[in-house]
Amino acid sequence: MSLLNAFESPVTAVLVGASGGIGRALLEQLLADERIGRLYAFSRSTPADAAQLAATYPDRLSFHRIDLSDETSIAAAADLLHGQSPQLVLVTTGLLHTDTAMPEKSWRALDGEYFQQQMQINALAPALLAKHLIPLLPKDKRAVFAALSARVGSISDNRLGGWYSYRASKAALNMLLRCTAIEAKRRWPQLVVAGLHPGTVDTPLSQPFQARVAEDKLFTPEFSARSLLQVLDGLTPQQSGQVFAWDGQAIPA
């Protein structure tokens, strides 16, 4: 069974953030999809079972290191993919909290270093990945470039305030994706550029904030990954540049 029926088979896919909670679930979903011919998995650290997985899928899967704080590393990843013409690029990396910093409850908690970390990982890194990877995508058939965003990046939906750095970085990401979609449409008319809100997923990123989440609103990584792939498969080029939730609903800017 395939979740990617709108793509021409076989599909070459690129997954950035393959060692994270949602990234790993997407890795497994993609490998289980019969239409995926080749999957290039990138992450900051190589998963412990990378060698075993690569041996299990020797002709379909390869793991590679990437440093999203270094554009030369991103450019090197693009060089590795040169000539492969991927149709699907998924960016699943993200930063919400660190060992020393948590989302701000007030402007009094704003910290320059934490803010810059959020902007680097959540906004600039996906934009640089788009800069280097979109030129590799086919111009004559369906292609998708998608990055994990968040509902809290919506300015019009912000009713609670707080989380200054994370909200700002996701709002910036949404704008960067919109700009990318407008520019790319001129040369890649069948390309869909999209932000994805995965819901609240049971991963280390959300773990400190799960206490107030209703049980039926805390998703497993597997459920979220499957839902996001179904959403992506249904998007059209006319919807490029928007942000969509796990249930397919468009999120306002």
UniProtKB/TrEMBL annotation:
InterPro entries reported for this sequence: Fungal_SecMetab_SDRs, NAD(P)-bd_dom_sf, SDR_fam
Listed GO CC annotations: cytoplasm
Superkingdom of origin: Bacteria
Gene Ontology molecular function terms on file: oxidoreductase activity
Protein known as: NAD(P)-dependent dehydrogenase (Short-subunit alcohol dehydrogenase family)
Organism encoding this protein: Marinobacterium halophilum
Lineage summary: Bacteria, Pseudomonadati, Pseudomonadota, Gammaproteobacteria, Oceanospirillales
